[in-house]
Design a protein that fits this description.
Blueprint (H helix, E strand, L loop, with lengths): L1 H7 L4 H23 L7 H19 L9 E2 L2 E2 L2 H36 L7 H25 L4 H21 L8 H22 L6 H23 L5 H20 L7
Antiparallel strand pairs: 1-2
Helix pairs in contact: 1-4, 2-3, 3-4, 3-5, 3-6, 4-5, 5-6, 5-8, 6-7, 6-8, 7-8, 8-9
Length: 262
């Protein structure tokens, strides 16, 4: 999968989006193939979301990788060296994607087994799943804001992406009970709030990555609270942690935004 994504970077920009969709489709097919024996019912959809979305988000975000690094740590590089350094960054990016994809498949494998019997690794898998969901959301939010579209386009795009990513994460809180209805309601609520904030950010002169980070921090807080709510354990300390984290990221985003124009 990492090699396939890397090959898309050498294609023409006009064909890349179609190639990203094709590679994401391949991710779904291969994930089904390796998990086929344990898949049942709704898992054909829920367990396949993260492998597909992580691949698509990683591919889209790869367009933000630099083609040259002319300066680093105050030191200027010649053209050949700057291009070589950018190539090294690209290789590292796709290696990290390969590691992340391996982690995604481990998570889905654990989830498929945990639905029928208790497994010790389930809690660790939930934590890693939460992190990879946030990373995927950061990729999509950054790409969405980079288009500089009007808010009436940004809001539905963020809503759809947030719902697709949130639902499997909330559904996996308790695999032995049917949480589909609650997971759907909570996912809609989280996605709606994220879409509203994205609408506000579409009016800001905020950098796409910083805006994506702000939306991701919001998703971190809301999704974390909703997961605790589904597990019937909501701790005040966690609420404070989520609130402080979101407030800090939002404040940094506000302070680092240039409001005076170019």
């Amino acid at each position: 999968m990492a090699v396939c994504l890397w090959l898309t970077t050498v294609a023409s920009v006009d064909f890349r989006f179609g190639l990203y969709l094709a590679v994401s489709g391949l991710a779904y097919i291969l994930a089904v193939w390796v998990l086929f024996d344990d898949l049942k019912g709704f898992e054909w959809i829920t367990l396949m979301v993260l492998p597909t979305m992580f691949t698509l988000g990683s591919g889209l975000f790869s367009n933000f990788l630099p083609t040259a690094v002319p300066r680093m740590f105050g030191r200027a590089f010649q053209l050949e060296s700057s291009i070589l350094l950018a190539d090294i960054f690209r290789v590292m990016y796709f290696v990290l994607f390969a590691i992340g994809m391996y982690g995604v498949l481990l998570i889905e494998n654990i989830f498929s087994v945990a639905s029928i019997r208790t497994i010790q690794l389930f809690r660790a898998a939930k934590s890693v799943n939460f992190i990879l969901t946030l990373i995927s959301s950061l990729f999509f939010y950054t790409v969405t804001l980079s288009f500089k579209l009007p808010f009436w386009w940004v809001m539905p795009m963020v809503f759809v992406v947030s719902f697709i990513l949130c639902f499997p994460s909330l559904w996996s809180v308790d695999l032995k009970n049917n949480l589909i209805k609650d997971a759907t309601r909570f996912s809609i609520a989280v996605s709606w709030v994220a879409s509203l904030v994205s609408g506000a950010l579409s009016f800001w002169p905020v950098k796409p990555f910083m805006g994506g980070l702000m939306l991701t921090s919001l998703l971190y807080g809301l999704l974390g609270i909703m997961e605790q709510r589904l597990s019937t354990r909501v701790y005040v300390e966690s609420l404070v942690e989520y609130g402080v984290t979101v407030a800090i990221i939002m404040t940094i985003g506000f302070l680092t935004t240039s409001w005076v124009g170019g």
